[in-house]
Amino acid sequence: MSQLQTVKMETRTTSQAKKDVILEVRNLKKHFILGKNQVVQAVDGVSFDVYRGETLGLVGESGCGKSTIGRTLIRLYNATSGSVKFDGKDIYSLKGKELKKFNQKMQMIFQDPYASLNPRMTVMDIIAEGIDIHGLAKGEERRRRVIELLETVGLNEEHADRFPHEFSGGQRQRIGIARALAVEPDFIIADEPISALDVSIQAQVVNLMKRLQRERGLTYLFIAHDLSMVKYISDRVGVMYLGNLVELAESDELYDNPLHPYTEALLSAVPIPDPETARTRERIILEGDVPSPINPPSGCRFRTRCPKAMDICSQVVPTWQEAAPNHWVACHLYNDEAKRES
Amino acid sequence: MAKVLEVRDLHVSFKTYNGEVQAVRGVSFDVNKGETVAVVGESGCGKSVTSQTIMRLLPSPPSMIKSGEIMFDGKDLTKLDEKQLEKIRGAEIAMIFQDPMTSLNPTMTVGGQITEGLMKHQKMSKEEAKKKAIEMLRLVGIPSPESRISQYPHQFSGGMRQRAMIAIALSCAPKLLIADEPTTALDVTIQAQIIDLMKELQEKVGTSIILITHDLGVVADIADRVVVMYAGKVVESGSLDEVFYQPKHPYTWGLLASMPRLDQSSDQDLQPIPGSPPNLLNPPKGCPFAARCKYAMKICTQEMPETSDVSSTHRVACWLQHPMAPKVEPPAMAVGGE
Predict the structure, then answer these.
(1) ipTM associated with this complex
(2) Rounded distance, CA B242 to CA B227, Å?
């Protein structure tokens, strides 16, 4: 590990200056108050950038805070603290016209295609709702746009006057994507967009999302728990554990060379549909369950399940550092000072 | 090898207001002693209906076993009455369900739910049953089982509940365990724990397992044989290696090629299967996959193909196997990208 010199925060400007940052998240926290002085620290101090035109994947197990991040970024929740800048502007202080513009530029695709479409509205009205709110088109033009969008996502004109219950899960997710595209956004947050779909349909939706990204230069934040699919679609992947980002790197780098023990365990736990690989590979089976985010462990939150935990892990929260170029990790194993002390 | 279960030409339908849904349309497969058979397919392909019919859990009406037989231990399960079935359920055939949150009784202690079966089927006394229940909880890896036994399901985490359910299912040492998507509701690290546990327990107890799943990754990890279902029919069945490395049915190719793999680079495009499965209210006359199949011929839409033998263990229902059919090569991604 000696070649992995600790590189501190300042070096990031040199290695990543060329890229155009569309979203800058710094020390974002979202806590939910349960009453009786109990606080769920759903997201607790997360920092990352998203570059224009890329797909950033966020993975982690249930309860790790990945969906909360998505919902906080699009202002469905207000952040407890921290800053989020979209196109250079702090999103939590936007008001009036600027806020409306932001709402247009950032859109979301939801997980459950059955629950996220209003059952009493026709597909035409569902897709055109954003167009109406932002006054982008009226009358014949409005209809023409919706039909164009339907064709873009692989549906057609006759679907426009039907209701959501007349569609299959895959088709509904296409409607959800068309709705997000209707206001011509730059940035789309996709919160588990394919987990409710069957395997053969998942590939249809993922290919559609990839095509749209190529054609329209979209930026995606792709939230999912399916690591194989996240690796496939993302340029970079962030791994979350119990409200913290533990590792962030380009997807091939993350999968070929994981640094954090949690990433290692997570990758080795993913079943691979190949009998020969399944017979031969070594798996790291983590003990126990994820602790409660109401009362998370001190220091590094993963230490209670970590096979490589040291003394320092329970005392000091590991810093978020660039352990290799463009490869960020929060773990004491990659902090030389911490290692010496322990 | 001794056969534990034989399903022969099973047809199951449901009566609905819109007509009869033919959920299972002529399914046949065997389960040998000590082996794990995975039944794979997408939602609505009839895999869960098949498993619940083996346990006879489907209420009738609306469900109807139209024809076929399920031979278990010399008895045809489709012909038994409730009283006879009660002797078999839990004792000889046990089941693990998908959702550990809803399939345990929230008003009973976990211990109570394990001892219930032991006292009924094995006529154990309360004391003996409790001892056995503690032993079972320890076997499935629940720490401090002595105190856990008197707790309720809500005090367990998702993974622990699934362990408790496995303890209940295995407590009477059943000959056959049906696991219906046992890991789908769990996170990957917990899923790995549960799969390992099932493999380990199978070695110790020697139970045969029917694993119902849509996750080919889990199948590759645990199964000995694979049955691929589509629209209520078995389209391909064979040993694990036969189905993964020499798949013969275009639907199996489609399934394998539409999944990204963690150990492969992402420059290959995924190859989705176009369209969606047929409506079983009015299933197509010919091969149910014909409408989505790249290789479909005229005959595919007219007649259901016969099941043909590729090897003594590998069977496939596809017209491409007919000697007069053109030879087609499966897509590269379907055979492990080699």
Answers:
(1) 0.78
(2) 11
Mutate to test the interface with B, among A232, A256, A276, A280 (most CBs of B within 10 A): A232
Instruction: Compare all CA atoms of chain B with the CA of A195 and give the residue at the minimum distance.
Output: B184
**Within an 8 Å CB–CB cutoff, is residue A294 touching chain B?**
no
How far does Cα B239 stand from its chain's mean position?
Answer: 15
Whether the Cβ atoms of residue B163 and residue B79 lie closer than 8 Å to each other: no
Does the beta-carbon distance from B336 to A274 stay under 8 Å? yes
Q: Which residue has the tokens 């009453």?
A: A35
* DSSP letter string, A261-290: HHHHHHHHHS--S-HHHHHH----PPPS-P
Strand partners, B8: B69
pLDDT tens, residue by residue, A204-259 = 889 899 999 999 999 999 998 888 889 999 999 999 999 999 999 999 999 999 99
Choosing among A62, A171, A274, A292, which should be mutated to test the B contact, i.e. which has the most B CBs within 10 A? A274
Instruction: Look at the block and give the residue holding tokens 């002693």.
Output: B33
Mean pLDDT of chain A: 88
Mutation target for B interface from A66, A198, A266, A284: give the one with most B CBs within 10 A: A198
- The band of A123, judged by pLDDT with boundaries at 50, 70 and 90, is very high
Tell me the backbone φ, ψ of residue A300, rounded to 5 degrees: -75, 130
Taking CA atoms, A100 is separated from A96, A147, A219, in Å, by 6, 25, 19
Contact B270 A207 (CB under 8 A): yes
CATH superfamily of B3-223: P-loop containing nucleotide triphosphate hydrolases (3.40.50.300)
Distances (CA, A) of A157 to A127, A152, A160: 13, 11, 6
Residues whose CB falls within 8 Å of the CB of residue A128, separated by 6 or more in sequence, listed in order:
A142, A145, A146, A182
| Maximum Cα–Cα distance across chain B | 68
A227, containing H or E segment: helix A227-233
* For chain B, domain boundaries: 3-223, 229-263+271-334
**Among the partner residues B157, B217, B336, nearest to A271 by beta-carbon distance:** B217
How do residues B275-314 score in pLDDT, each as one tens digit? 888 888 888 888 999 999 989 898 999 988 988 899 999 9
Alpha-carbon gap, residue B167 to B158, rounded angstroms: 14
As a whole number, mean pLDDT of residues A11-21 equals 58
Check: CB of residue B262 under 8 Å from CB of residue B252: no
Closest residue to A272, CB basis, from B190, B220, B274: B220
| CA–CA min distance B191, chain A (Å) | 8
- pLDDT tens, residue by residue, A279-296: 888 888 888 778 888 888
Ranges of H-type helices in B61-124: 82-88, 110-121
| CB < 8 Å to A268, chain B | 192
Q: What is the DSSP letter of B224?
A: S
Domains for chain A: give ranges and CATH numbers: 4-87+222-341 (3.40.50.300)
CA dist A4 and A331 (Å) reads 13
